[in-house]
Structures are given as structure tokens and as C-alpha cells.
Amino acid sequence: MPRSRREFLRDSVVLTGAAVALKAHAEAPKKVPPTAKLELPLVIATWNYGMELCAAAQKVFAAGGDLLDALEKGVNVVEDDPAVHSVGYNGLPNEDGVVQLDASIMDGRNHRAGAVAAIERIKNPISVARKVMEKTQHVMIVGAGANAFAKKLGFKEQELLSPEVRAEWEKAKKTNKDSFWRADHHDTVCCIGIDAKGNIASAVSTSGLPNKLAGRVGDSPIIGAGNYCDNEIGAACATGIGELAIRNAASFAIVERMRAGVAPTQACQEIMERMIKHSPEVKTDPKAQLAFIAVNKAGEVGAAALRTQAKLFRYALVRGTKTGPELVDVKPMLG
After folding, report:
1. Is residue 188 annotated as part of the catalytic site, yes or no?
2. Which of 131, 208, 262, 272 allows an S-S link to 257, with CB 3.0 to 4.6 Å?
3. What mean pLDDT do residues 247-272 have?
4. Residues 291, 238: contact at Cβ < 8 Å?
């Protein structure tokens, strides 16, 4: 029996409503399920020195400190270490022999963030980045403006390059400036923390690529590239060639994959595969490196690394306040 006009309109409305409901369901963020096994607080940090970072952050938590305090103090330990040549004091210089530092911090509770880029003569850029977040309406301050802001707040200027590293740079400059490359130059310090209430934050600090153009800014201070977190989902950070992370909005992309229900390691690997697809030249460039760490709301951690160079990419992880951190090796995707 043919349908009446009224029946046709009624059925069309029902079908349209069902289609809209299905689309909304498909697009709705998939919340990460809670787990009874989650041991908090939790901190994950890149590279071997992540052990010292995690231990320092753990002490802050044990003393009742705040999540942002824990991450900031943890990063400060690495920034202050003259043996770490890719972060803070004694970081590797740019083409002019000047150490220019980048850093950012993000609070997943309110998506507030602070960053500084190409800041000079201030050894703790992560602390300045936090002040940008808490004391201004801005997200990023760069160059001379960042230095002026830091000095106004009482940060002390100092020479950041040790005589030994300066001598190394000077020697390379006299021969072939492009030869000033070190195996540890990719070692950006990245960390993610979850406090006892389940709040998430992330922080990144670096001196960037050695011998970079003066004023070059990498991914570390760029929210969504080197660092991103969302309190409902999780967080991700990147270390390596910053341009690769910027081109792929890597940290944001990883968090969005976790929002879709993908586990942290798989999310990191998927974005790494996307990067390789977009930049296939990295397959044959032995100096190209990129690595990610990620944590979801359930406390699951994950990571991915492009390749092994002078050393294997690894991360440090600490859960709770009673057991110390451990190092975890990450198998590279290119072998």
C-alpha cells in the first residue's frame, strides 16, 4: 500500500533523527575507563636523566606538593645539570655560539599553558614558562621579551655555556661548523604527571638543535606539537627533530587518538607512522630522530621512537611515593 504524505514525512523525520544520533555517538569523545589498579601519583619522563626528574617530582608529591610544582622541580633538576647538554645550563649553542632555550608547561585541568622560546642566559626556562601561564594572559613570550619578563620577576641571568663546550664549538667552527653534532643533541626533557586526584599536566624544556639558526624555535614550546594534555583523556610529549613534531601537530594528534579509545603506545606509533609517511626521507637520514611518550587517564603509559642512534630511547617511570623510578627501553620503529 503506498504511503501517505504524512507517513512519508514522519518516517523521514525518524530516519534523520536516527542518523544524527548515530553521528553524534561516533563523534563523541570516548572516555578512558578508570582502573582500580591505578597507583597515583604518576610521573613519566624522557631519557636516562628522567630517573632524577621522576625522583625529584616524587619527593614533591611525598611532601604534599602540587602537580605543577612536582613537574617544575623535576625539570629544574635536569636544567641545572651541566652534564646534560641538551637542556638548560650547558645546553648546546646555536650558530652564533649562544645558548637559546625553549620550554612549555600545560595544565590539563583548564588547558592553560605557558611557554618561552629563544630565551637566553636564564637556566630554568620551565620556571619562566610557568610564570607566563600564571601571571599573564599570554601563552608564549619569545626572545628579548622573554628575557625581560624573566628578569622582571627576579630570575638571574648567567652564562649558560661551560668553557669546555664553548671550546668544542669554537674548534668545530674553525673547521666545519656543520660538524658540531653530538649524539645527545636530541635529548629534550619531557615529562607528564598525574596527581593523586587524577589531574594531568605536562612539561618540556630544551636547548634545541645544536648549531641551529639564531632564533630558531622547535616544537618544545609549541602547545600541540611538543606538549599537550587534556584532563579527561591524557597527555603526550615529543623529543627529537622539532620540525617533524610541528608539521604533524604530534602531541595533540596522539591525545586525540587516545580520545578515540586507542591505547597510548598504539597512539604514539600511529602518529609516528603518519610522520614517516609525510616525511619518508627520515628513513635514510641517520641523524633524524623523533620519540613520544604518552599517558592516558587510566594511568596507562606508552611510547614510540623512530630509531636507535648512539643510544636507545628510553623513559623513566615512577608510580606512588614509596617505590623509586624505573627505566623502560623503547624498541625503535625503524630497527
Report:
1. yes
2. 262
3. 98
4. yes
Half-sphere exposure of 30 (CA within 13 A, CB side): 12
Q: Does the residue 4 lie in any domain?
A: no
CB 139 within 8 A of CB 132: yes
What are the φ and ψ backbone dihedral angles of 15, each rounded to 5 degrees? -65, -40
CATH code of residue 131: 3.60.20.30
The answer to the question of residue 224 being in a domain is yes
For residue range 170-189, list pLDDT tens digits in order: 887 777 655 555 554 568 99
Q: Which domain holds residue 273?
A: 38-329
Q: Could you give the number of structural domains in the chain?
A: 1
Does residue 10 belong to any structural domain of this protein? no
Query: Which is catalytic among the residues 188, 265, 321, 323?
Result: 188
Where is 39: in which H helix or E strand?
none
pTM passes above 0.90: no
Indicate the SS3 state at residue 83. coil
Please state whether beta strands 200-206 and 314-319 pair in parallel, antiparallel, or not at all (unpaired): unpaired
